[in-house]
Specification:
Layout (H helix, E strand, L loop, with lengths): L8 H48 L4 H7 L7 H13 L3 E6 L22 H4 L4 E7 L2 E11 L5 E10 H41 L4 H17 L3 E5 L5 E4 L1 H7 L10 H4 L4 H7 L7 E5 L2 E9 L5 E7 L1 H39 L3 H25 L3 H16 L3 E4 L12 H21 L6 E9 L2 E8 L17 E2 L14 E2 L9 H11 L3 E6 L5 E7 L22
Parallel strand pairs: 10-11
Antiparallel strand pairs: 1-4, 2-3, 3-4, 5-6, 5-9, 7-8, 8-9, 11-12, 12-16, 13-14, 15-16
Length: 558
């Protein structure tokens, strides 16, 4: 019959552990019994030697051996039998220098020559051995017998029945086997308990499936376009896939280290570490907007998934801007309709000169505003943004001004970054200005170039930002917007719900500034309000660059 090896991991481990435990116990029992047999043999020979030495030390034995004849009822035989009976030896044989027995357990052997060579003993040496004689196999010892002057006159041979030695050995085996069986039972129970725990942990999968599951996991983790970070119960990183390493700026050395060691302090680290509760949590990392979800695992760890929402966030802001432009165009449509009605009335009244003057004033006012922005801001994206935001501001009843010191050449390295920064600052300024009711509210924009550094400053006539909150508003999850702008309540910076997209704009502004090596700060405006200043080094191309050549923020051509 062919023995089938079990397929499940826990069954294979159980079988291997039981076989290993059994083998170890059999080996340990054998290693214990083997030296035990030798030890019992040595004990029997030492006992025989001790009896032989005691017999040879008897003061009258040597004299009787020399002065009498070997006989069944002689004094030597009587003394030897007395010692044999008292000690329980198999035999006590006394022999002369010719090897003739003077005593023996069987009296008919008296007077006969011994069956083994006594020459070594008669030469003065003590002998211990396991040997076979006339009474069978025995553990024996031989010592020389000396007279009062120290001369060797014979020898004494004592034997211990080997059957008694073997009986002691066999008597020990049951106890040894009982202990071995108990140890084996404990080992098997431990193996069963371990296999059951392993079964729960492995969910009953086979060894062949583990390799396939690992290959599939590696392919899935490194193939998906979502970041995955696995953490253990102590908050150390166990796994980071390629997308998560790209989004968080981690390298291969991050595995095995704590989150706080590889990521800077902030909301992103707090979200990954589980210090912020919720689902679809937004965080900013390296200028990217991330959506994070944290799922705890049974061992106390967690798996965090990350989605890059940067492009979606930019599109959302562009849509917000487009919606604002549409609202402004609707307002302008009403205004143009009113202007056309006015012009029609002037024409019907025959006041042609007044009509021409009215048309010239309207056209020149709109053209002057757009031309003023285009003259001071040469980049088309930035100038278009300002024109659009001016229309949105007018719809809200706020005046958007361009500072007289504004001058930005057409040498912007990445206009999209400046559009993101400027758009966020203007949107926040318009919201803050709209929350505070005052006469002639306005937002002023200043763009300046200092060599290759771009300086953006946006001031407003809103309520301003308290000094103790001027750093916290740049953190992810903080906003100065009230829930209801029309309520007239005083705005205050506070943590907001990231699911609603609040608390991201200023965090993005600071991250972009830091990526360029610059800074973003807020101060108070004279007369009330706030002034946001962003400095972006290397955001402008150098004057000696070739036309049309663009540089990255690090100054490298691209």
């Amino acid at each position: 019959m062919r023995i089938r090896w079990p397929r499940r991991v826990f069954a294979q481990v159980l079988t291997a552990q039981v076989a290993l435990t059994t083998g170890v116990m059999v080996l340990a029992t054998g290693l214990f019994l083997a030296p035990l047999s030798s030890e019992l043999d040595d004990q029997a020979m030492r006992r025989a030697l001790s009896i032989a030495q005691t017999t040879a030390a008897a003061p009258d034995l040597a004299r009787e051996l020399v002065t009498t004849e070997p006989a069944a009822h002689g004094p030597v035989q009587a003394e030897a039998e007395r010692i044999r009976t008292a000690t329980g030896a198999l035999y006590v044989v006394v022999m002369d220098t010719h090897g003739v027995r003077w005593s023996h357990t069987h009296t008919d052997e008296i007077g006969r020559h011994v069956s083994t060579d006594p020459s070594r003993t008669l030469a003065g040496r003590q002998v211990r051995q396991i040997d076979t004689g006339t009474l069978g196999r025995s553990a024996r010892a031989k010592v020389p017998l000396r007279d009062g002057r120290g001369r060797i006159v014979g020898a004494v041979s004592v034997g211990i029945a080997y059957d008694s030695v073997r009986g002691r050995l066999f008597g020990t085996i049951p106890a040894v086997l009982r202990y071995a069986g108990a140890a084996l039972a404990v080992g098997v129970l431990a193996a069963v308990a371990l296999s059951r725990r392993l079964r729960r942990r492995t969910h009953g999968v086979a060894f062949a499936d583990i390799s396939a599951l690992l290959d599939e996991r590696e392919a899935m983790l490194h193939g998906i376009r979502e970041g995955v970070v696995a953490l253990d119960r102590r908050g150390r990183i166990r796994l980071v896939n390629d997308e998560a390493a790209r989004l968080l700026g981690l390298d291969a050395r991050a595995a095995g280290r704590a989150l706080d060691e590889v990521l800077p302090p902030g909301r992103t680290t707090d979200v990954l570490a589980g210090r912020v509760d919720g689902t679809d949590l937004l965080a900013v990392s390296g200028g990217r907007v991330l959506v994070a979800n944290r799922m705890p695992t049974q061992d106390g760890g967690a798996v965090v998934t990350l989605r890059d929402r940067t492009e979606l966030e930019l599109l959302s802001r562009e849509l917000d801007g487009t919606q604002g432009l549409l609202d402004a165009l609707r307002a302008q449509d009403h205004e143009h309709a009113n202007q056309l009605h006015t012009l029609r009335g002037l024409l019907e009244l025959g006041r042609y000169e007044k009509a021409v003057e009215f048309v010239s004033e309207v056209a020149s006012a709109q053209r002057a505003s757009a031309e003023q922005i285009a003259e001071r801001v040469h980049d088309p994206l930035l100038s278009a943004l300002l024109v659009g935001k001016a229309a949105v501001a007018a719809e809200r009843g706020v005046s958007l001004r361009v500072s007289s010191t504004t001058l930005l050449p057409d040498a912007v390295v990445d206009p999209r970054d400046l559009v993101t920064v400027l758009g966020n600052l203007i949107d926040n300024a318009l919201d803050a200005t709209g929350e505070r009711r005052r006469d002639k509210p306005f937002v002023e924009v200043e763009l300046r170039a200092e060599h290759t550094t771009a300086v953006l400053r946006v001031s407003d006539t809103g309520p301003g930002v308290p000094p103790e909150l001027r750093e916290r508003i740049f953190a992810e999850g903080w906003s100065t917007k009230t829930a209801s702008p029309s309520s007239g309540a005083r705005p205050s910076a506070r943590p907001v719900d990231f699911h609603r997209g609040r608390g991201i704009g200023l965090a993005l502004v600071r991250r972009l500034a830091e990526r360029y090596g610059g800074m973003a700060r807020v101060t108070a405006r004279a007369g009330g309000g706030a002034v946001f200043t962003v400095v972006l080094p290397e955001a402008l191309a150098r004057h000696d660059d070739a036309p049309g050549r663009r540089l990255t923020a690090a100054g490298e051509p691209r």
